[in-house]
């Protein structure tokens, strides 16, 4: 019986070591691709196009597509939203963990910090697309639904949500993108 227990422990240790090794390799891969923002997004866009082609050609899995769209919309809103929302009551300034957006003209400039950083946004969109693509190969996820209703509902939801987000951006005067950001050469001069 001791041999059986020892073999079980050895097998579980081996599996744990293999899992740890795979996690380290995956993390190393993520660390390597982090600086290549444009290429990461191109790869994710290609993945999304492949998924959409799969849905169009198979004529099914509209619920999976709708769920993916809602999830990506939710991630996009978190990407556009500041980490420290100026619309929240900021009377407890001592409790804040970091900088916030200026609300009045006489306040100093504070940098825009996203609620969801770009890398986590990309990673979540890519992971969700892979999961949705995987689900599109199983008929259990192909729930019959009249897809034009889902499309109209998603478009209305997108329009209402983005209108609200844009009003928030205008009200608190922040732009979540670096437009016309100065780039500096090696000598310290701007280009």
Structure in words:
- Keywords: Membrane, Transmembrane, Transmembrane helix.
- Pfam families: Rer1 (PF03248).
- It is a multi-pass membrane protein.
- The structure is a single chain.
- With 191 residues, the protein is mostly helical.
- The chain folds into two domains: 33 residues; 123 residues, no CATH class.
- It has five helices and no strands.
- It is globular, with a radius of gyration of 23 Å.
- It starts with a helix and ends in a 20-residue tail after the last helix.
Largest sheet: none
Number of domains: 2
Query: Alpha-carbon distance between the termini?
Result: 74 Å
Helicity range: 55-70%
Shape: globular
User: What fraction of the residues are assigned to beta strands by DSSP?
Assistant: under 5%
- Residue-averaged pLDDT: 83
Alpha-beta content class: mainly alpha
Topology, please?
Elements: H1 2-33, H2 37-58, H3 62-80, H4 118-135, H5 147-171
Helix pairs in contact: 2-4, 3-4, 3-5
Essential attributes:
single chain; 191 residues; mainly alpha; 5 helices
Concise description?
This protein has 191 residues and is mainly alpha-helical. It is 61% helix and 0% strand.
């Amino acid at each position: 019986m001791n041999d059986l227990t020892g073999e079980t422990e050895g097998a579980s240790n081996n599996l744990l070591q293999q899992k740890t090794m795979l996690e380290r390799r995956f993390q190393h891969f993520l660390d390597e691709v982090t600086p290549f923002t444009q290429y990461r997004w191109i790869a994710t866009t290609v993945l999304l196009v492949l998924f959409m082609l799969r849905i169009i050609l198979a004529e099914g899995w509209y619920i999976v597509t709708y769920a993916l769209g809602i999830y990506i919309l939710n991630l996009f809103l978190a990407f556009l939203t500041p980490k420290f929302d100026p619309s929240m009551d900021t009377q407890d300034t001592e409790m804040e963990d970091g900088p916030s957006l200026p609300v009045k003209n006489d306040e100093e400039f504070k940098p825009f910090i996203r609620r969801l950083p770009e890398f986590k946004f990309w990673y979540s969109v890519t992971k969700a697309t892979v999961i949705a693509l995987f689900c599109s190969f199983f008929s259990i996820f192909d729930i019959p639904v009249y897809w034009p209703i889902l499309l109209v509902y998603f478009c209305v939801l997108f329009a209402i949500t983005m209108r609200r987000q844009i009003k928030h951006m205008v009200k608190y005067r922040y732009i979540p993108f670096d437009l016309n950001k100065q780039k500096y050469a090696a000598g310290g001069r701007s280009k």
